User: What shape does this take?
Amino acid sequence: MTKVRPNKILGQHFLICEWVLPELAKAAELTRNDVALEIGPGTGVLTHFLATRAKKVIAVEKDRELSALLLAALTNEKVSSVEIVGKDILRFDFSILPNVYKVVANIPYYLTARLIRMLLELKNKPEVIVLTIQKEVAERIVAQPPDMNILALSVQSYGTPEIIADVPASCFSPQPKVDSSILKISNLSADFFVKHRIKPQYFFATLKAGFSSRRKVLTNNLQSFAPKKELAKILLSIGHLPTARAQELSLEDWARFVRLLLR
Assistant: This one.
């Protein structure tokens, strides 16, 4: 492709280290029978690699110049297994995707939380999600008590996140100020909510209130949900003191806590 200038507004940092490409494909367990959804293909480095590993690649690129250049390059190289969609991923119609597909992408940092949440809440969820994201955010997503957070609980309620490898800032152009990590989210489903008979809306509303002030105990943050004495009683019943804070509860603790609040 012709050399292009990264768009700072779109948070573009192009992947330049070739060793990262097989790591992404391996994490997604890509086969020649798979459809891969790539978000923000940029210069197409990952796109070309995915095309050699998957049956089909659907690459969604918001930048019109980049999507046109990538399409021209693929056409010139007679690569027919890639479909370029010139659109904002947040406005993409996921219903056109097959029932089984995998997300593999190097995404802009600013899009991380919103994109992951959107993918997890889709009716036709991907089989697996593999992304390069900011290292600090990846570590937050895989956190466990006593360092839980809303992002970790949101992701872990829908799937199993794990950090596959760290990717230094030098592997991107322009070079960002922070390192990245390859994050894999597997076992995607809504089974957690079905199992615990909790509506996602209520679960996340409770989480938001519970984490509204991390320094305060839950019995103070959730007074609009129930009296402090009742909240303290529920905490004791799930094995926590009334002085427990939101970040100290595990995913299962939160499920039990919210379920008891519903009674």
In short: The mean pLDDT is 94. Strands lie at 14-15, 35-39, 56-60, 82-85, 102-106, 128-134, 160-167, 172-173, 180-186. Residues 17 and 171 are 5 Å apart (CA to CA).
